[in-house]
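ok so I'm stuck.
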Amino acid sequence: MNPLRSLRESLQEIAQKVEVLPAIGGAIEDLERPDFEEREDHAVNEEERVFDAVFETQPTPLYRPLQPVGREQDHRYRYFLDGSFRSYFLGTILEQERESPVHFAQVGACLLRREDDGSVRREALEVRSLLLAGRKRLSEELWELLEERTRRAGLHLVDLTEQDIVSRILSDFDLRNKAGGKVRYEMRRLEAELLLQGIRRAPPDAWIIADGSLLFQPILNGLLRESGIPRVIGVSKNFRKDPQFVFGRGPRAERRSIYQLLAGLEANCRTVAFSAQGGKVVFWYVRLREQRHLDYPLMGVVKVELANPPQEPVDSELLDQLSAALLAERSVTPHGQDRRWHAHLYPIFLAERAVKECLFSREVVQQYMRWR
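replied:
not stuck anymore, here's the structure
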């Protein structure tokens, strides 16, 4: 069943019952905010801003030099997870004094597996089609009609007025602007499902790199139920810029902003690891590229997170090994194809591209989406 054909028929039926202001051309693609990953990183851990707990077994020095370790020496990372989405504004429903925007979106997630020879294949890939509207802005009768029609079309109906950790940072008054956060939240939920499936599938010596923060609650809750440290790291290309880091105690304690911390971080080095949420997660920063090739100190740096169910300081040698193997993943870079090239890990780029290839194009969506 083509969900677009079924959705078009449902929209045309709804347009017979209420007034509709359709989008120009039937559908307008919502452009993703370039800073949303950073804003999400802030939202999932907004209670903490000052980090003073160095949470590894060898807390000195502040920066630890590394040598990249490729898969020929240590094929540690065998699975790679990323997601993507496309979202479209379809129009506004006017129901007496009520009104709500209506959006159509597709969210997808892909788990890639890399073989010993370096080839990659899709271990799992899932795409979901969504229709988004504000339940509190519509009558119960119309909402029930939307539920029945989306179920028939094989779509998931999402309430734009329902709060979640991602979209709550956006205003409830502008539901059209909030739609991007809701779509991203649904994508992250799908990523969480594939990630937890991947942990159960992976061999005992295989690790997973997941794009984005592990502090996203559906992901973190699943990882904390694992015995020991789960074999997953979260890697963020964009991250919050407001943390402060305190080293030492008493009057000699030194405080650094994230800019000061990363300005001293050289290529092929990592920072010490810090504790988040009482030690449930440890995080650190790794510089993938030399600063002299980039515009400012935060470029070429990724934030790395590791779930820590025991909530005890993590072995420094393990953190060194994870970081050294991570450095080798930067080798092939999609330069010119993505503005985040300086912090890309190539297998993650491939996972994202695999999802995008399965999503409807803008031209196809605009061709089908007609209220009348």
